[in-house]
Each structure stands twice: as structure tokens, then as C-alpha cells.
Amino acid sequence: MKKRVAVLRGDGIGKEVTDAAISVLEAIGRRFHHEFEWVYGLLGGEAIDTVGQPLPDETIRICEESDAIILGAVGGPKWDNHPSHLRPEKGLLQIRKHFELSVNLRPVQAFKSLLSVSPLKEEVAEGVDMMIVRELTGGLYFGEPSFHDNDKAVDTLVYGRDEIERVVVHAFELAKQRRNKVTSVDKANVLESSKLWRKIVEEVAARYPEVEYDHMLVDAAAMKLITYPSAFDVIVTENMFGDILSDEASVITGSLGMLPSASLRVDGFGLYEPIHGSAPDIAGKNIANPIGAILSTAMMLRSSFSMLEEANTLETAVKNVLEAGFCTSEFKNIGRQILSTTEMTEKIISEIER
Amino acid sequence: MKKRVAVLRGDGIGKEVTDAAISVLEAIGRRFHHEFEWVYGLLGGEAIDTVGQPLPDETIRICEESDAIILGAVGGPKWDNHPSHLRPEKGLLQIRKHFELSVNLRPVQAFKSLLSVSPLKEEVAEGVDMMIVRELTGGLYFGEPSFHDNDKAVDTLVYGRDEIERVVVHAFELAKQRRNKVTSVDKANVLESSKLWRKIVEEVAARYPEVEYDHMLVDAAAMKLITYPSAFDVIVTENMFGDILSDEASVITGSLGMLPSASLRVDGFGLYEPIHGSAPDIAGKNIANPIGAILSTAMMLRSSFSMLEEANTLETAVKNVLEAGFCTSEFKNIGRQILSTTEMTEKIISEIER
Ligand SMILES: [Mg+2]
Ligand SMILES: [Mg+2]
To answer: What assembly does the database describe for this protein (chains A, B) (predicted)?
Structure first.
């Protein structure tokens, strides 16, 4: 197959980890006879410096003409005091909105060889393998009216049936490819929006009799993510709850730099990025962990290109390298062999080429 | 001093743990020459069975004529299928609303002798000693419009300046009695209500130059509660964020049955209750942990009665008993001596009488 991919490396370590991901995808392409065309676009701080806006029109055009987008990370102290429309993060929000990326996927997986770095006891973190499915373009962060003056403030949480249904369906479809279990998180004992959410989950669930499901209140979910995280398979929830819970879940394995994400449009087009930031303090030192970016491209292979074997091969390669005792510099002092960004990338490529 | 206390034992283990707390308060009364008058009222399931409503008028009257309220826990499977206005929990919501209990305090403290039961690594949980201050009567759970039909749902997050200011002031006052540090949690990069919240925090902070403070986004706070919980002193936040974060925080020490709470009116009147539920499965067996209820009354001594030495004495007594190796039945298999509810109560009383 031939696929055209927009590459937005962004700022800081975004560049290095994206380069790493591309090298790995080239290896996948060689092994499975696919041809990837990389089309580079500016985003974030560098875009502000170069063309005066965080998401240039040229970048939008490049993305529109591509089959998927891979993104590194944006931001840095240089732009921290810019007005909000000239902040690197604004580019991220704009691109999600422009392409209607309404379903956010945040997998969290514990690697057995790295349990010692989890803040949780090893026996609690062991076996964690969950997929958080977050609604990304609706709810409290977008509803109107939304304003504040000196004495009063209002935000509005609005959801339409379609917005809820598409993300819930996505979660049930994903569960079929995993362990057939969906936990829907809401606050249906208090919120009207959660009552509609729960009703739609019931309707969708009826169409998936093979998938087990339950409802959990958001505060109970915040507890269970710590006490018994391995019990979760797919979690589906609305935007704000997903924002909080996906970040909470991201730290339970202790390896933030490993975690990928996907933001999808209903037709399967998507943007893929590691969840870590641009880490300007370690940028350019060839020590950043490229695995979050690399695993993000595995999500792209699976979700946007339906290349399942290719995605599995890539994920297995990463897993094998980690289980063999290699890791990057953030895991020093746990008795494992530390590799640079490029060395780690090469190791993963060797695994793919084996 | 003479104090009149409304006692709402509620359902299940609510009764046993409240009885335990009263015995302990009697011991405090003897040692410090205070006289407590206990006035019992019905609440929750038992109230539904007896007078047909979860919060009887007679109970409201008893509370109005008292200096503070102590509460056990409400609910049980017997009432789970009742219509929502006849659910035991409804009585709790009604009492908070009736008495305008707008400031919720949720302390979380790790006991060194029980670090092994935390889901976190011992070195992560060690030293945790935080106070979460949650706004309890405003925000998304109460704003209008709030409705849903088959296709659309709306909830509204509204805050007025006064609602925010009183809880923020409370947090800064508490910090002065603790380690002089306030972390205000919001989502000011997205929500208008959080922008007003942050503005008011800045204004209040200016009046407390001796108190260090910072702002943290709610998703970052959800992460840090797991990765570095001992860094927090006082956390102050709005209702929904507080709902989620206080429950998340409650599990980090692994000893839910130990945790007290207070819900306060601006004038200092308050309701004190353990955070655990009515646990009908273990009710009446004399095995429930009374410490959550007992520590709640220490909060009453401090917050409603300004009996600081008395509160400290009670808390020290609990701590000494725990550090001496005693605990209740939920901590079996960690090599400590298991006491019944009444034995634990007696131990704590002996410490107070020493
Ligand atoms: Mg977030
Ligand atoms: Mg809660």
C-alpha cells in the first residue's frame, strides 16, 4: 500500500521522537512492502517564529492531502508569555477542531520489566492494559454560554445524542478487538448530561451482546484506577472526565514517555502523538524516549490504515526490546541498560527486521 | 464547656461507629471537663422505614437546636430500589443543603504503621498529610438550566464571587494552621468559571502573604496525587473537581475506614462524618473500623468548638494506638493485632485517659 502521512514534528523533543518514529515506520514499510510518503508541516512554536501563527494554512493543506497526521510535541518557555492565540498549544486545539477529531484514544499498558518505576505497588500495576476512549470535541469545554465577569462565571455542558453515540460505538467496537469489556464513566446520579449518556450507552450495548459493560461514577473510577487498575479494559467517557481520568491513568505505570495517543475523525482519519510534552530541557540531547511516538504510529497503522499485522509487529518489537532490559535515560538507577534515542530506535528496527 | 450535639447514626455500621465516637468524646469530656449532650435523630433508611422520609422534620429541628451534627452513614440494599426522593442518600443531600454546608473538608493522612496497605509504593505514600477543601453547594451539580431529553442534554456550571471567595478564604485560614501552603486546582486554560476562580484566589492570596500558593490544572493534580502526594498541604477546588480528587486521594493511603470529613457552614456550624459507607455486609458484627467516625469528631472539636487541645489529644490517641500495632479487621494479613470495634474504641479511650 502507499500512504501519505503529514509529519508535524513540532518543538523540543517533538522533532527527535518523530524522526525516530519515521525510521521505524520505514522499517515496517520495507518488511511489509508499503510505501510511506512523508510531507512535513510546521506546527506550534516553530510555526509561530516562521510564519506568525501556530497552525499555518499550509500545514492544514498538507494534512488535508494526507491519509493521517503524526505529531511530535509543541511548546517551550520561549512562547510561554505570548498572547493565547499565539501560543503553540493553540495550534493543537485548532487542528483537532479543524479535522473534527472527536474520539481520543489513550491506551495505558504496564510493561513487566518497568513495574519498579510505577508509583503503585508492583502487584497493583502489573497487568494493567486499558484503553481510555474520551469524547474530545463536546461537553463543558465547548458549550455556550461561557463567560465570566468580576462577579459571576458560567460554563455550559452540552451534549447531543450524535456526539455521545459515535464515541460510545467506537468504544464497543474497540472492546471487540480487546477483552470484550466496556466501563462507561459518568456522574448520572447528579448530571442530566450523564443521564442521557447512560441511556445511550444502554442502547448501544444492546447492539453488542458479546461485550460485557458496566457503568461507574467518575469519582469511583478515579479511585479504582489506583486500587485495581488492571480490572479495566475499555473505559469510555465524556470530554472533561476523560481529560482528568486519562491523565490520572497515565502515571500509574510510571512510564509517561512510553504512552501513545490517537485523535480520530469518524471516518478513521486521525492524528497520532505521544502524550508527553516537548521537554525543552532535554531537547537535542538524543536522550528522549521515542517509544511514545513510535507506539503512536502503531495506532495509526491499526486505526487509519487497517494494517493490523504491521501494528502488532511494531508493538511486539517495542515490547521485546523493553523486556530484554533496555530503556532510555529517564529510567536510570533501576539497573537496566540505558540507550540513547537513536540507539533505542535502532534496537526496535532490528527487532522488526529479525 | 457545654455542647449539644445532634447524633444521626443512620444505617448499617453507621450506628456502631457513631456509638464508638460518642464513647471517645465522653472520655475527652471527662478529661477536659466538658459536658456533651447527645440528641438522637433519624436519618436515611431507618428514617424512611419509621416516618416515611429520609430527612424527617424532627431531625431538622434537632439539628437546628444543636451546636454541631455527627453522622454515621446511610443506605443499604433494602432501599436501593426506592424512587429517588425516598433514597437514604437523599437525606444527606437535603441536610447539606438545608444547613448551607458549603465547605467540605477531606483530610488524608498516611499512618506509618499502615503503609503496607496503600496501593502506592510505601515511599510514595509515606508522609502524605493533605487537606482537600471542596466547595460543596455550587457549580455544575446545581446550576440551571439542567435538563435532558432523548436527543440533547445540558448542565450548567455557575459560580458567584461570594461562593468562591468563602471557600478560598477557608483554605488559606486552614493553611496557616498547617504547613502554610495552598494549591488551588482549576481548569483555567479552558473554563471561564476557572478563570474567575483563579482571579479570586489571587486576590485572597494577597491578603495572606505568609501562605505560599500555586495553581494547578485539575488533570495535572490528578497525576500528582499519585506520583507525589506528600507534596500537598491544602488543596482548594470547586465542587466537581473536589468530588473527583477527594475520592482519588482517599485511596492513596489504603485505609478508607480511617478517613473523616467535615461539611461546614460559614459560621462554623458543621456536620461531621466518616467518608466510608454503611457497609451493610459487616453491620452488627462489631468489626467495623470506628476511626473514621472518631477522627470526624476531632474535626468537630477543632472546627465547630475551637477545642484545639482536645482535638489534638484525640488525634494523638488514635495515632498512638495505630503505631502500637493495633488495627481493625480490614487490615488482616499484615501481621498486626486485630481488634473489634469496641476493643479499638477502648484502646483509644485508654490513650486519652493516660
Ligand atoms: Mg488532560
Ligand atoms: Mg465523590
So the answer is: Homodimer.
Q: Is B289 annotated as a binding residue?
A: yes
CATH number for the region B129-251 comes to: 3.40.50
Of B152, B195, B243, the CB nearest to A161: B152
Between the alpha carbon of residue B56 and those of residues A76, B19, B70, the distances in Å are: 58, 21, 16
- Cβ proximity of B108 and B242 under 8 Å: no
pLDDT in tens, A87-111: 898 899 899 989 999 999 999 999 9
Residue A84's pLDDT is: 81
Where does A1-102+258-354 sit in CATH, by number?
A: 3.40.718.10
Pick the ligand that lies closest to the CA of residue A218. Answer: 2
Report the gap between the CA of A274 and the closest CA in chain B (Å): 17
Judging contacts by C-beta atoms under 8 Å, the chain B residues touching residue A201 are none
**CA torsion through residues B92, B42, B63, B38, sign:** negative
Q: Search chain B and give the residue with CA nearest A199.
A: B150
Catalytic residue list contains A181: no
Residues of B annotated as catalytic are 141, 187, 219, 243, 247
Q: Which pLDDT does position A67 carry in this prediction?
A: 98
Domain B1-107+255-354 sits in CATH at: 3.40.718.10
Q: Does A195 touch chain B if contact means CB atoms closer than 8 Å?
A: yes
Domain boundaries along the sequence of chain A: 1-102+258-354, 129-251
Distance CA B205, CA B169 (A): 9
Provide the grid cell at A38: 512523508
Question: Given this model, what pLDDT does residue B81 score?
Answer: 87
In this prediction, residues B28-36 reach a mean pLDDT of 98
What is the enclosing helix (H) or strand (E) of A22?
helix A13-32
pLDDT beneath 70: ranges in chain A: none
Closest CA to A191 of B157, B222, B244: B157
Q: What is the mean pLDDT of residues B2-23?
A: 98
